[in-house]
Please model this.
Amino acid sequence: MTRTVAHSGTTDSPYALSHLDALESEAVHIFREVAGEFERPVILFSGGKDSILMLHLALKAFAPAAVPFSLLHVDTGHNFPEVLEFRDRTVAEHSLRLHVAHVQDYIDDGRLRERPDGTRNPLQTVPLTDAIQQLRFDAVFGGGRRDEEKARAKERVFSLRDEFSQWDPRRQRPELWQLYNGRHAPGEHVRVFPLSNWTELDVWQYIARERIALPDIYFAHEREVFSRSGMWLTPGEWGGPKDGEPVETRTVRYRTVGDMSCTGAVDSDATTLEAVITEIAASRLTERGATRADDKLSEAAMEDRKREGYF
Amino acid sequence: MTSTTSPLTAEQLSATTLLRFATAGSVDDGKSTLVGRLLHDSKSVLTDQLEAVERASLGRGQEAPDLALLTDGLRAEREQGITIDVAYRYFATARRRFILADTPGHVQYTRNMVTGASTAELAVVLVDARNGVVEQTRRHAAVAALLRVPHVVLAVNKMDLVDYAEPVFAAIAEEFTAYAASLGVPDITAIPISALAGDNVVEPSANMDWYGGPTVLEHLETVPVSHDLAGCPPRFPVQYVIRPQTAEHPDYRGYAGQIASGLLRVGEPVTVLPSGRTTTISGIDLLGQSVDTAWAPQSVTVLLADDLDVSRGDLIAPTATAPAVTQDVTATVCHLHERPLRVGERVLLKHATRTVKAIVKALPYRIDLSAGLAHENAPAALEVNDIGAVVLRTAEPLPMDAYADSRLTGSFLLIDPADGTTLTAGMAGEAFAEKIPAADAAADDEGWDF
Model:
């Protein structure tokens, strides 16, 4: 009809990149910008899939040289043992340097208090920001994606944090083209999100394409779990199950990996990457909606934690 | 996990391309509804997100779920019922992945739309069929033209409220197309829709059989995403020098970066700017894999035949088509910050991978993006959301292209050296592809007679 200045044909040129290549290229660009502009960058590394993906991209970005960043993990004390083991194996394999901040240390000496619900995710903020200040990191890579949560949808790729590590969504720098502004005063730092434009499905497809190894708990396995608030949680010293929460053995897998007290498993028989991708493509639940208890605390739970310095 | 939709095959999933697009619309023209429908009908709104919206809507006494809550993510936005800032949203079909820069239609529209349009390959401009082309529509068209967004879609919305009448659509489409084409927008597609009723958004409309064109989604899925590489001069800003200095790679010295435009080949004679030294490309590593050619926007590592002094901030370009270097930059800018920009101000200019000192030498004019693009000559300052011309003198020479030739090596930021605030977004060279049609009223007032 009224196609006035029409273009011919609808096929993409041979130079069009696949969406995974485009996302990879963009993430590599972000890693190299940080390497070029900052003194002491660090990658937040938990052994979960997003941080494993970040490390993989960083390895590609600087090959054949080593990754010019160290790693930082905030250990809640309630981590899945197989994930910690994977973390340490990965660090050794690539001769990386890992810093660990322990939530347990803060609880032991009274700087933090255990919450009644046993959830330690919100307690990570203080050890994280302390570590950033003490180790003088000026750029901190996080695996956060804008598709995860609506407060995160408002996050910049380069996100300036003040000397209290606070995020103020109303005072963010506009971000145009690929011109990232990393200027900051001493004591301030920049959070950097190279996976901002990836979705959960992109992450899994890329992991499959690149054959990236992951901890086993991402694949279906038999596990003792109990139900709380509609989620399958793993029993453990963190404080579950309580009376009236029967434990049963189910075939499950994890979509996210975090603190055991608030990260739920989903029923699944996906034992391969291909099966996981098929399952996610068909899922009617978001990753965080399916498996994260802490985001359900309030409508603005993530925003409030991010304002305080959480990732 | 429940499965209700048919999953895409692995081949479908990985062969797709990525389209970045932006939406522009004023407050009541139905942009949220259009975005909501694209997300909803492409099954990108998942059950738990919808439940959260229903819960929140009920919690504040609304009977139906308020779909705006899907997109308004921040506490202040929900409290005030406004959208503060650009948000990026993601959805996919079997043919393509989409990144949508959802720009709010509020007072801060110009800066936000400029931000969203800077990375967009397509802009959707919404018009209410009852109102036709209004001042805001012209402003949106002008921003799309200014930012050189290659494809513009005019979505004539609320066709259900004008009895799906073809003449209404045709008149609006003709007026808009004439205006946008006069600004130099290369590709304009007009689509009559009803976002509320779902006509021509994802599904073809049964109410408008006179329309034979694509639906909005169909157009988004098929519009070409990469441009004619042969016509773009290759540009490679050096981001970082990779020197392993290991036993395995004792002499490796690679220049890492993302190709900003064009295509690079091994064996090509190149010039390194601003020094002007020449050499040839001896190798290209595409993230660990050696290749003969690479093109924008691939991130690669380039190896050079000669051992030149090359560092972050330099630009590598084919000797035959290398840009000139200059310390005098004339550009069209959008001022982004509440702090005004004045003549004499000392700023930092970030261009590609280089940041240099610069001084604002002149503010030749300010443009009113509505109706006729009227000029105000030599304004006292550029205020937030202002579009205007700037003349800058830089402390070091820059290889800057015209924005018309390269959106990445023709763009820059101005940054406050004191606190790092991003002040201004700049586009080197002429503002619009075509000469601005409007007469220069302010110049006439001053008695200029040529």
